[in-house]
Amino acid sequence: MVDTGPGAPRRPDDIRHTPAGGLPRATPREGTPVQPPGAPIPPGAPTRPIVQSPAAAETPPRALSLIHI
After folding, report:
1. Is the pTM of this model over 0.85?
2. How far apart are CA 26 and CA 32, in angstroms?
């Protein structure tokens, strides 16, 4: 009988129990903060992004009519 437990050594070509997307290249250690891609976030930055609303149109919006739908 072959030992297939989690502690059994694996061969490089062994694909049993491999995730569908493949094995990740590197896994961060426990407690290591994961840095998101892109520019670093400054320490004083707000936790929520500031979202600017689009500029208001010059004409008021028209009322929608549900009769002709």
Report:
1. no
2. 12
